[in-house]
Sequence to fold (245 residues):
Amino acid sequence: MSKYWFMGAAVWAALTCAAPAAHADSLTIKALGPTALGQSVSITHPNSSGSPTTYGGFAGFYAWEKQSGDGPIANGTFQTFCIELTEYFSTGSTHTVQYANPQDAPDPGNPLATVGHMGLAKANLLSELFGRFFDTVDTAKEAAAFQVAIWEIVFDTGLKLGAGQGQVYVNNASHMNAGNYGAIAQSYLDALDGTGPHMHLLALSKVGFQDQIVPNPVPAPPGLVLAGIGFLGLMGWRGRRPARG
Fold:
């Protein structure tokens, strides 16, 4: 992947609170499906009432087509990561969503947050995660790890993925072994100390829609490859509700 828009940590800290609002326009997008950059994972996370529930399915880059609307995303295909685990959509579905600053998403909100959305501290962690590692993600396992790290930031109060260490954790202890997606995700999280490069991000948000996040400016996906039909049928991206705790 090529480089995108980065800022040094000191400059970012000085500007984040005064950052301009995200583009207010809406856009209509169609869910194309999981890409080949991703794999199945199994995690526990808080559901809409804050109780633990299990998600087992795809984590990684998800492909969309912008069909109409204004703002920084051009018409055509682009890829996102998910920032919401309590709402759903189906592959092939079409949605009209709003651009939002990450700190004002997800909508209707994180069950662990007192004000609903992730807030500025978590948005800054996501910005550093993207700034440090987005450019390096080029395998299915790394993409899954990157997605799990995003969920940990948004839906937990800490940055540890081991069982018993928070609200979001990897279910299979072996997946935290070196080289597995859990261990890679934890290495990403361990590096977040506020001093790394940051990347500008946009959220795509709407009540009743599983909010997504994308770099701003939005990279065009080179050689977009969707996962095969069998893969989609087995691990559809939130097409089915996870088992409830």
In short: Strands lie at 6-7, 26-46, 52-69, 76-82, 94-100, 169-170, 198-199, 201-205, 212-215. Residues 6-234 form one domain. The first strand starts at residue 6 and ends at 7.
